[in-house]
Design brief:
By secondary structure, this protein is of the alpha/beta class. It contains 19 helices and twelve strands. Strands 4, 5, 6, 7, 8, 9, 10, 11 and 12 form a nine-stranded mixed sheet that branches. A three-stranded antiparallel sheet has the order 1-2-3. 52% of the residues are buried. Bound molecules: magnesium ion. Magnesium ion binds next to loops. The site of magnesium ion has 6 residues, from loops.
Length: 435
């Protein structure tokens, strides 16, 4: 198991800027699992961070190494849930969570690397491996501790058995037509109105039926930007807005109502990701504007409560925030049980590459629908991936390469490893002026 601190200097173009994160340097705490199976197959995984602290995240990966190395690879790939349980169950590391924050993100990165390895060894893209799997085995991969009051193993089994009906036709449809996407690229807070308008018009021309704008720093600016965006896209395209946790509950309600004239489809992360009852209060006050959250929800327990409290209309799971594929299976099953659409969070570094597999599995073999479901798409940093996402006509095309699409090019790793990669070493000499 090798680990890397990889950082991209995205803050220099204000790519990714929002009301809470004005200058992100999109980063990955990255790991590679190698085996002695002799087939050259590797497992790649990562946690996404935005710069400072990526070294802390890498240290958390390193703390898990002893649980991973030395395991028989065939056994590990046949039951990634066993590793997931061991990582979550390390009684000393558990104190640093439990099941939240830096350690949990590290667990997710390691578990996802194992799923990448398993899918490559099975010679299937991950979405296909999951969609082909027996419902009983999928249920065995889920940790029902703390969620069994909302979803029992038997209910999960029933959902998966029902989800399999017609899956071949849906898999064929997915391969033929792809999965709907929406784009956040026009809406970063640091972009000028002219750039916003141009990118919004381009998005509609490219076939997107939903775009998203960052809001929450200044109400007058938001009114002006939402007006510009709505004028650019017309009435028939959905306009989502995202406050990135900026507000108190009452502010969120007032601010969202002040933008209602522009017909926002959802308000995303209106307040603290931990505030379940706050989201419920906002939702009841701002309807028919939908409430969406989840990219910072720490684990399946928070998602369970958001659903139980009727606090969200849209569930935005993230592939690299929680404890990996196993926990995201639990979250997809909870969403299916409560009938709430999943519109995954993506962007960052490689999050689009990962999360497409989970949404596609959900369509083919669980919820069985793409209605009111879209995967976030941001057109940044894909060139660093060996199998980048392919989005055309406003839709993600189904990946065909084996694995989890998580591997970066070795040259990108060598260039952007911090602080000794070639980019950062040169940057240090030039005093931070390297573009
Ligand atoms: Mg967001």
């Amino acid at each position: 198991m090798e680990t890397y601190d990889i950082r991209f200097p995205t803050s220099r173009e204000l790519d990714g800027s929002d009301a809470m994160n004005p200058d992100p340097d999109y980063s990955a705490a990255y790991l590679v699992l190698r085996t002695d199976a002799g087939d050259g197959v590797e497992g790649h995984g990562f946690a996404f961070t935005i710069g400072r602290g990526n070294d802390v995240q890498v240290a958390a990966l390193d703390a898990l190494r002893s649980h991973v190395t030395g395991r028989p690879v065939a056994e590990l790939c046949a039951d990634p849930g066993s590793l997931s349980r061991d990582l979550n169950g390390d009684s000393q590391l558990r104190w640093l969570g439990p099941e939240k924050g830096v350690m949990h993100m590290a667990t997710g990165a390691v578990v996802n690397a194992v799923w990448d390895l398993a899918a490559k060894r099975a010679r299937k893209p991950l979405w296909r491996l999951l969609a082909d799997a027996e419902p009983e085995w999928l249920v065995s991969q889920v940790d029902f501790r703390y969620i069994a009051d909302a979803l029992t193993p038997q209910e999960a089994l029933d959902l998966l058995r029902r989800g399999r009906e017609g899956r071949e036709a849906r898999a064929a449809d997915l391969v033929r037509r792809g999965y709907p996407a929406y784009t956040t690229s026009p809406g970063w807070l640091g972009y000028s109105d002219a750039r916003l308008t141009r990118l919004a018009e381009e998005a509609v021309a490219q076939g997107f039926t939903q775009i998203k704008l960052k809001v929450g720093a200044d109400l007058e600016d938001d009114v002006r930007r939402c007006r510009a965006a709505r004028a650019a896209i017309g009435p028939g395209v959905r306009l989502a807005v995202d406050a990135n946790q900026r507000w108190n509950v009452d502010e969120a309600i007032a601010w969202t109502k002040a933008l209602a004239a522009f017909d926002p489809y959802w308000i995303e992360e209106p307040t603290s990701p931990d505030d379940i009852l706050g989201h419920a209060a906002i939702r009841s006050a701002v309807a028919p504007v939908k409430v969406a959250t989840g990219e910072h929800a720490q684990n399946r327990v928070v998602f369970k409560q958001l659903l139980q409290a009727g606090a969200i209309d849209v569930l935005q799971l993230d592939a690299a925030r929680v404890g990996g594929v196993n926990e995201n299976l639990a979250i997809l099953l909870l969403a299916a049980k409560f009938g709430v659409p999943v519109c995954p969070h993506a962007g960052g570094v490689g999050l689009c590459e990962l999360v497409q597999h989970l949404a596609m599995f959900d369509y083919v073999a669980l919820s069985g629908t793409t209605e009111d479901r879209v995967i976030e798409y941001v057109d940044h940093l894909h060139e660093h991936f060996v199998h980048p996402v392919h989005v055309t006509g406003g839709r993600y095309r189904a990946p065909s390469a084996p694995g989890f699409s998580s591997a970066m090019h070795p040259a990108s790793i060598a260039t952007y490893t911090y602080p000794d990669g070639t980019f950062w070493a040169a940057d240090l000499i030039s005093g931070g002026e390297t573009a």
